[in-house]
Amino acid sequence: MEPILKDRKIAIIGSGLIGMSWSMIFASAGYKVVIFDIVQSQIDNALKQIECQLKSLEERGLLRGKLTAKQQYSCISGCTDIKEAVTGAFFMQECVPENIELKKKLYKQLDEIVDDKIIISSSTSTFMPSIFSDDMKHRAQVLVSHPVNPPYYVPLVEIVPSKHTRKDIPTITRALMTEVGQKPVVLSREIEGFALNRIQYAILNECWRLIADGILDVKDIDSVMSDGLGMRYAFLGPMETAHLNAEGFLSYCDRYSKTIYAVSETMGPVPKMEGPVMEQVAKELEQMCPLEDLEKRRKWRDTCLTELSKMKKELND
Length: 317
What we know:
Helices cover 52% and strands 13% of the residues. The protein is α/β, with parallel strands linked by helices. An 8-stranded mixed beta sheet has the order 3-2-1-4-5-6-7-8.
């Protein structure tokens, strides 16, 4: 597919892990990407890491897109002038830390320098877009494009408009995300936690209850997902899984809906992740993966996710 806005510029605000990942995603389709950060050394470090990652991905046959690693890297540059970064860009992906005061300050600054055409997209996983855009004169151009960490290896993007977002903005954003190889879903309206985190939190809460009640330890809890539910959910969502587990969804509800309701009523109040259980979970996790091995384990995770994505694409083609 040809880029929907060929030879156009995309600005990335923030040079951390998410900003780097977005830069690589957009560069894989040949877009001109400019990374903004306030410190030149952070930009230099990000560019160096991006170059190393692209080369490594190419060597392992895992590079996205049709361009070489060198060609993709040539699409990416950085600057410490935010006005320079956003000027001429048709799309901006903000990737600053999850601090609401920091975001409000940034968006107030952006409001004074952006034009009426640029799409202002946030990577936030925490804040609904209206929280930081309500007072903006360009608020109709603002929405959330929430990726799954790490975005380069997990394609889902939640596109979340505020009540002010212009109707065409989610449509254009969805087309862009699809074109660069992501899998966008568009929420009809903003809601706390969006969709992914609401589902993730429900899973985490029940895992916490089972650990706190002494039903399973951390390793076995994780096995329930990685060796059970997760194997199905890597290819099918929970709704289609239910559909296939009976003679259609109506049959599934007829068989299991009363049991699901009865078990759900026993799940108890929402737990707070603190105190002795938190300490025990952390201890068990550090036995499974010592803190000094986190980066090694993340690289293994990323390789697994990339290989899974390749396999899913091959199976669906």
